[in-house]
Amino acid sequence: MYKFEPLLKQTLWGGDKIIPFKHLNTQQERIGESWEISAWSGVETVVAEGPLEGKTLKELVSEFKGDLVGRHIYARHGDTFPLLIKFIDAARDLSIQVHPDDALAAKFSPGQNGKTEMWYVIDTAPGAHLLSGLSKPVTPDEYEELVRTDRICEVLNDVPIKPGDVFFIPAGRIHAICSGAFVAEIQQTSDLTYRIYDYGRLGLDGKPRALHIKEARMAVDFTPVTDPRTHVEELPERENILVECPYFTTSSFNLTKPLRKSLTDIDSFYAVICIDGSVSIEMESVSGERFASHLRRGESVLLPATAKGVKFNPEGTVRFLTSYIG
Fold first, then answer.
1. CB contact at 8 A, 206 and 141
2. Averaged pLDDT for residues 89-114
3. What pLDDT is recorded for position 18?
4. Residue 255 backbone phi and psi in degrees, to 5
5. In this structure, how many other beta carbons lie within 10 angstroms of the beta carbon of residue 311?
6. Pair 2, 50: CB distance under 8 Å
7. How many CA atoms lie within 13 A of 294 on its CB side?
8. Which of the following is catalytic: 30, 92, 173, 195?
9. Rounded to whole angstroms, what are the CA distances from 30 to 85, 105, 197?
């Protein structure tokens, strides 16, 4: 099992001071954007402890290949770890944007994936909301006029949010995380974002941030979205599958008692992201070896594809997410 050190990114919307989630003490403090499990070039998380301490996730994939990520995953993605897991804590509104699918990404950015993602709402400030999907039919020409006149928000679903809300954001869906939202984001490994509207802000370099009008128009799915939430009844003491798609399967757990989960039916890594509380994790590999780790709020661990089972031992009440590729 591999526990990683998070990487904090300074952003326009993350506040003036950013700290790791695990050290967050008051609502006045912000974590900004924290990359928890990442092999994205230049933003690679490193192993926090153990004999491989200091190794990047990319180095782990290169060394252990299918034993780490899964045979079918390695055959498809090679040394590219296919998921990127973040915490996003928005002090200000993020830009309105859209992500390409794999085909459009290959056209404009050869070698990169598209970007399908999901959000799990961890916490909210009063009035927190998100934008997700078109609220009514819009033609491509109407969309372009709305963008040109800074009126794109008029045709987007503006959704009030609360902790535990789930949003699936397939490639092509216009979206934005807005002020007061604190979410866990699980996505394809890609940094391709087509910015549609950015409130006229200047970037960290003091210049207007680039918009990607042409690319975004080609990426947008113009199908209206009636209800952008993913409705899941999260029950205690069991696995609750939140999102299941070709790019990831993500579940939530809210435990006060030990729980065992078999991993023999998946050929994939298994990521665990602790949202609240703390938990001890016991893993058994297919060779019979046993490993243990301990997670508290704001920490993540990656189990290799050679894990055949895992036992979660909560310390009081713990809430965490898991994600793998089916």
1. no
2. 93
3. 56
4. -120, 145
5. 15
6. yes
7. 2
8. 195
9. 18, 32, 24
- Is residue 173 among the annotated active site residues? no
Question: Length of the chain, please?
Answer: 326
Contact criterion met (CB below 8 Å) for 283 and 307:
yes
pLDDT band at 116 (very low <50, low <70, confident <90, very high): very high
The token pair that represents 31 in the structure block: 């974590």
| Nearest 10 degrees: Cα torsion 82, 87, 88, 89 | 180
The pTM is what? 0.93
Q: What is the Cα 110 distance to its own chain's centre?
A: 23
Using DSSP's 3-state secondary structure scheme, residue 216 falls into helix
CB 97 within 8 A of CB 175: yes
CB–CB of 234/240 below 8 Å?
A: yes
**For the segment 149-205, what is each residue's pLDDT rounded down to a tens digit?**
999 999 999 999 999 999 999 999 999 999 999 999 999 999 899 999 998 887 777
User: Nearest Cα to 128, choosing from 85, 171, 82, 160?
Assistant: 160
Distances in Å between the Cα of 62 and the Cα atoms of 45, 48, 81, 199, 233 are: 14, 18, 10, 41, 39
Q: Which pLDDT belongs to residue 15? A: 53
